[in-house]
Amino acid sequence: MAIYLTKESKVLVQGMTGGEGMKHTRRMLAAGTNVVGGVNPRKAGRTVDFDDRAVPVFGSVADGMRATGADVTVVFVPPAFAKAAVVEAADAGIALAVVITEGIPVHDSVAFTSYAKERGTRVIGPNCPGLITPGQSNAGIIPADITKPGRIGLVSKSGTLTYQLMYELRDIGFSTCVGIGGDPVVGTTHIDCLAAFQDDPDTELIVLIGEIGGDAEERAAAYIRDHVTKPVVGYIAGFTAPEGKTMGHAGAIVSGSSGTAAAKREALESVGVGVGSTPTETARLVLDRLAVEA
Fold it and tell me: What is the reported pTM?
């Protein structure tokens, strides 16, 4: 089992013919992802060769869905065009839109995440690495060769920390790893993934990676208290962040004691989540919890 993405998923790539789109489409195909088409209205009707696979280019998401049955789109378009790309995908009725693009204006993200939700399209991102179900499918830029299928579910604001925990726990493996993105507005939250992992019979333990800024982790802690029965282990990036300094993610905004790593750790630990001080310690906590569960 997995959440959101399986070997049955049929993937379109909006922006496939651009530099980043080409590079990562090749990587997704190498990981076994069923990429069924690209979208570029100026290059519709062409095909792009990726080693031994010729991938057609469609003029719109709707055309691609009609021709292939696609149910996922991965968005590799410049920030100025991201809103239009997601709105197009939502209008076509696609189930999942994975928005890799960073630097999207917040008001655009507010608009397209709300629009997509109203039309039943789940958005992951923006400014995210995407998601991977190891051994089945990879939608985005997550390296596919650093872990294996297993029983841990992972949800993370940080792409880099997603990769590190995947590698540290590679001997156990993962059901699905979801990078939700670090912007102030994202389409899929920690809570959404916690609910999905709670319902996934093959996920035995959940790893939650957060970072300073906002209150997403505090809200996740309240949800865990009320709804999650599986063990959860967490890590919060930013314990050593100096006061008054801007962090890399747009969502890492701290006001007074609100949004600090210490406050988030306290909230999570108060509901039984083990929180590591480093990624390596977090991985060790996972191993300890799984040993107890076994």
Answer: 0.93
